[in-house]
Amino acid sequence: xxxxxxxxxxHGEVTVEQAVEYFRDMMERKGYCGxxxxxxxxxxGSYYPDANQWAMEIANALPGSYAFAGLDHSRDFIxxxxxxxxxxxxGIKLLEGKPSEWRKNGFSYEHPRFDAFFxxxxxxxxxxxxxxxxPLINWDITKADxxxxxxxxxxxxxxxxxxxxxxxxxxxxxxxxxxxAAIAHFGFYxxxxxxxxxxxxxxxxxxxxxxxxxxxYPELSRTPEAAxxxxxxxxxxxxxxxxxxxxxxGFAREYNDTKVEIITHFxxxxxxxDIKGRWIHPIRLEQEMLENIYYNNAMRxxxxx
Length: 305
Fold this sequence. Notes:
Blueprint: E1 4-9, H1 16-30, E2 34-38, E3 42-43, E4 46-47, H2 51-61, E5 66-70, H3 77-87, E6 91-94, H4 99-105, H5 112-124, E7 128-130, H6 146-151, H7 162-175, E8 181-183, H8 193-202, E9 206-209, H9 216-221, H10 224-233, E10 238-239, E11 244-245, H11 250-268, E12 273-275, E13 278-280, H12 287-301
Parallel strand pairs: 1-2, 1-11, 2-5, 5-6, 6-7, 7-8, 8-9, 9-10
Antiparallel strand pairs: 3-4, 12-13
C-alpha cells in the first residue's frame, strides 16, 4: 500500500543534508514513498527566512516528495504565493491560526489581508494546509501536558478562547466555500465530530488532516461509532501525516514512532488497546479507504491524480 507522510517539518536544528538523511531513514522504516514538508517562516516570534528554501531542497532530494511554502508577513500574501507556486511548491502552509502565534502576531484568519488571500487561492485552486487552533486543555495549565507547557502552548485570559479560534476558521471557510484546504490535526474537532461534519458538508473542497496532536486519537476513541462514521463518509477527503521533525533522533524519533503506532492502530486495528498510556479504539477501515487516506487523497488534494 502506498503511503505518503503529508505533514512533516524542518526547523533548521540540523542541516538540510542531515534532514534528508533522517527523512530517508523514516521513509524506509515506515514504508513511505514520499513526504510533504510543510514550511513556515514565522514561528514562536522567530523568523526563518530560509525555511521555504530548506523545504524545497529536502523535497527535491527525496523522490516522490513535495513542499508547501510558508508566508512572509512583511510581503503581500498573493504576490509571494504566485512566486512560490511558480517555484514548484504545491501549496501554502498556514500556522497563523495557532493561539501561540496569535499571541505573537496579534491576528488570526480574521485579518483583512487573509480575505483577499483566501479569495485568490479559492479562484486558483491553490491547496492550503491550515492550523486553526489548539486543544481545549491548553487553556488550563493544570490539565495541559508537559510538552505543551514547555513549548509555551498554554493560554490564559489574555488569549482568545478556543471557540473564538474555531469561529475565525469557520467564518473564513464559509466565506470561501470553494477553498481547497486541509485543516491540520483534525482541526481539534475531535471532541465535536458533528461540528466537523457540518463544516465538511458546507465546504466540498475541504479536507481533514489527521496528523497528531496526539490527544485527538484518545478523544476520537471516546466516541468510536461517530468517529468511524465520519472516516467512512469522508475517506476520500482525509490526509495522513505525522508532524515528524527533521531532528529524528532521541525523543523526536521515539515520539514520532509512537504517533505512527497510534494512527495505524486507530485506522487498522482489531481491538481497543492502551498505547503508551493512551486508550485507542480502532475503526477498522477497509483496504480501499486506507489507500485513499494514506496516499490517494494527497495526490487528489494537489491535483496530481
